[in-house]
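User: Show me a protein chain along with its predicted structure.
Assistant: Here is one chain, sequence first, then structure tokens.
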Amino acid sequence: MDLTQIQSALRQQNLDGWLFYDHHRRDPIAYQVLGIAPPMCTRRWYYLVPAQGEPAKLVHRVEKHSLAGLPGAEIHYASWREQHAALRKILEGRQRIAMQYSTLNDIPYIGLVDAGTVELVRSFGVEVVSSADLVQLFEARWPQDALASHLAAGQVVHAAVRAAFSAMREAARTGASITEYDVQQTMLQVFAGGGVITDEGPVAAVNRNTADPHYMPPPGTSLPIGAGDFVLLDVWGKLSQPGAVYFDITWTAFVGAEVPRRYAEVFDVVREARDAAVDFVQTAVKEGCTIHGYEVDDVARGIITRQGYGPYFVHRTGHSIGEAVHGNGANLDNFETRDARRIIPRTCFSIEPGIYLPEFGVRSEVNVFVEESQARVTGEIQQAIVPLL
């Protein structure tokens, strides 16, 4: 935890403090931002970082270790009455504090503090505001060496996609049997050889399964892949080292020499939406304009809607990327949620519009890393469905 930087950010946002709270590890963001990993958390704890002055720790007498190592005066409680009185005391004189709370739960990834605790804090005459922008500052921005790990993982991820395409091409050429699960395992072998790990996946989907955005091939009943089939690969991974961040892409292919027009037409709409979103971000960053996650979603979704496919774009345009494949920064979303967080430097996110028809679905995904005066796509960009014969 960088106390000086947090306090500076609080003053810039006209906040009196940031109140962290947890019980039974319900708020992983608190542990990540504070940099703590207590062995047990069966009692409630509070940690107030004020805009100025010394932080305050409120911990149960049974678990005095909960906030060990953090700066600040420590207050112990046992009963709920003591807890309420002590919390009132450390909040005394504060008017506006941030918590992991989201108005109307607009950003559920941030809304981790239970409603009752928010009510308790408000009962002391304190206004509770969302910590969403603070979380992005201290949790979503990449350190200097993260980009290098992302690019290195990207080389392996792209190699895994190429290996998958080669395996399907060879099976179609020789008449050998290959399934979605086989293709997934081929990609995982490339991961293992390249020192890349993943939380789950990757996805290999064929024909109707490509219309399911979260399809995962089962080992025993996944579909075979052969000539005339349409295939989608969604592949994400990171280096097997501390602090590494994810790389996450989606590519599509057709097992045949010539891609049918219907597939190509839908891909072209998705590609146009993807590229428009990328251009919107790049132009805004270059010109120093402030943009928000929901605005990028509007750009991509507007193109797909104008082409008549609006009802078939059933998810957000993109998600934050960090040490978890779904990070804690701004998502490109004005559909599932309204993400009003700003796009800020040193953050990364996917741009992955999709169209999911009953018989097949098309998605094209790239990663965009935002720097101070430019934003760049960090990997290869698919321009057409790949023919595999």
